[in-house]
Design brief:
D-Maltodextrin-Binding Protein, domain 2, 3 domains, alpha/beta, 9 helices, 13 strands
Length: 311
């Protein structure tokens, strides 16, 4: 192995650092003698917390600084939560998944209620995502929703301070931080389709680094890789971003992949949802096909409406 020292760029939140340590430990175990250095940094997405993510630039705010570190050779790879990575990757970078997927579902967290159904009318629910808000408003029109920014611990602290009756977080993040006990209920995908790539770790690097490609290839999980490719192909077709409520989940069973997705209005007033199934090795084609079907079912009208409102 040509690479003896590996510099990993990462955000400095507890979750990002925990995920980076998972990657580092796995690579050290597979490549004895490998020295791993962490290059921590704070992204704009971490600094701007007073506005919803959709209003300050979306997903790219969590990855841009890390990509600059790769370009300037201050780091070799960057570790991301794949759901934070924009659907279109700059041409100079490559992206691979790392390891098996953690639980992709959303988690209900509350100090007083066991589930969303147990909340009183008018209860205030905190979430960082238009995707979650859209689906939950559609199902629970009598609940109130308010934006919730910050890292996992900051969000939990706001719940404990009584600012919210409940909050919705990614189960994967809570599990990776050892906070699984805080989960009161897991939201079934029938209620809340996850974000594209939720629960998957993505590793980004400059595409000309063949040594890194070889090092990382052995750490890809087949099913996770197919799922990520299908979901991101779907997101690319339907303009998946923080500004548009979009969700998708791919399940791989042997050589078969089933993909389900939705597009909706932030207030939950309109949603289109569908699924496709086919060969796992045609993941990108299935993703594109589902995206086109969602647009034809009414998703294009939803996107046009959102575009007019933001103009």
């Amino acid at each position: 192995m040509a690479t003896k020292t590996l510099r990993i760029a990462t955000r400095e939140s507890r979750l990002a650092l925990a995920q980076t340590q998972m990657v580092a430990a796995a690579l050290r175990a597979r490549h004895p003698g490998l020295v791993v250095e962490t290059v921590g940094m704070t992204t704009k997405g971490d600094r701007v917390l007073d506005r919803p993510l959709a209003q300050v630039g979306g997903k790219g705010l969590f990855v841009k600084e890390l990509e600059v570190a790769l370009e300037e050779d201050r780091a070799d790879i960057a570790v991301h939560s794949l759901k934070d990575v924009p659907m279109e990757l700059p041409a100079q970078f490559a992206l691979v998944t790392f390891g098996p997927r953690e639980d992709p579902r959303d988690a209900f967290v509350s100090g007083t209620a066991e589930s969303l159904d147990a909340l009183a009318d008018g209860a205030l629910v905190g979430t960082s995502s238009l995707r979650r808000e859209c689906q939950l408003r559609h199902r629970y029109p009598k609940l109130r929703f308010r934006a919730l920014r910050g890292n996992v611990n900051t969000r939990l602290a706001k719940l404990e301070a009584g600012e919210y009756d409940a909050i919705i977080l990614a189960a994967a993040g809570l599990r990776r931080l050892g906070l699984e006990a805080r989960i009161r209920a897991l939201l079934p995908v029938e209620l809340s389709l996850p974000a594209i790539g939720q629960g998957i770790l993505g590793i980004e690097y400059v595409h000309t680094r063949a040594d890194l490609a070889a090092m990382l290839a052995a750490s890809e999980d087949r099913a996770t890789s197919f799922a990520a490719r299908a979901e991101r192909a779907l997101g690319l077709v339907v303009e998946g971003s923080c500004e548009v409520p979009v969700g998708g989940i791919a399940r791989v069973d042997g050589d078969t992949l089933a993909l389900e997705g939705f597009i909706g209005m932030p207030d939950g007033s309109r949603m289109v949802r569908d699924r496709v199934q086919g060969r796992a090795d045609e993941a990108e084609r299935l993703g594109r096909a589902l995206g086109e079907r969602l647009l034809a079912l009414g998703g294009r009208q939803i996107l046009d409406t959102l575009e007019r409102r933001s103009a």
